[in-house]
Amino acid sequence: MAQETTKDQWRDPAHVQEFFSVRARGWDARFPDDGPAYDAAVADLGLRRGDAVLDAGCGTGRALPALRAAVGPQGVVVGADLTPAMLEAAVRAGRQRSGRLLLADVTRLPLRDGSLDAVFAAGLVSHLPDLVEGLRELARVVRPGGRLALFHPVGRAALAARHGRPVTPDDERAEPSLRPLLARGGWRLDSYTDEDTRFLVLASRADHPARNGAIRS
Question: Is 210 inside any structural domain?
């Protein structure tokens, strides 16, 4: 019987790369019905034509077509992921036509301060080594007032059941836990939805200066 992956392993970049590398080719086939949930979450992010948006931890790029449709041809869409095999799967699916694919660690993005209007992040929270620091990095690259969507196509209880375990009291995605974590990371929680059919948190970037020395070329 395979050993269950621990919480710490899910936050270890090397483990994350290993896990997704061997599953990348068949990843979309495992979840063939998630498309409408992604489309609805992108719609709720409230993007405008011409906006610049990042899909942080984009995986196979399932959100990229919806993000491109939302910002239009004049907008900017970037998908960043840590695992080369997932980006290769995105290319095989033709999703590089919807946005630029970037091999990058989302905790250290090669993007300038305030260069984006929004960040979309599907399934990212559980893979950040330090959630607050990860949220701060996402806040760094978004303009004040810009938006963040933390998304999963199923809710916390449904996801826990899928993995054969209960929802734990220390779950960082629970609203009482996540609200202060977002605040420490530079975000203001605007709405929180946790249903069987989706998990969606919308937040706005607080108006505070970026960390010193954070500008990237």
Answer: no
Residue 15 lies in a domain: no
Task: Say if residue 187 is exposed, middle or buried (CB neighbours under 10 Å; 0-12, 13-18, 19+).
Answer: buried
How many domains are contained in the chain? Answer: 1
CB under 8 Å to 214, separation ≥6 — which residues? 113, 140
Q: Is 53 helix (H, G, I), strand (E, B) or coil?
A: strand
Q: Which tokens is 179 given?
A: 């609200």
φ/ψ (deg, to 5) at 85: -65, -35
Structural domain boundaries, residue 73: 33-204
Give the integer Cα–Cα distance in Å for 39 and 20: 23
Predicted TM-score (pTM) above 0.85: yes
DSSP string, 103-131: E--TTS-SS-TT-EEEEEEES-GGG-SSH
Q: What is the pLDDT of residues 55-81, one digit of tens each?
A: 999 999 999 999 999 999 999 999 999
Quote the DSSP letter at residue 78: E
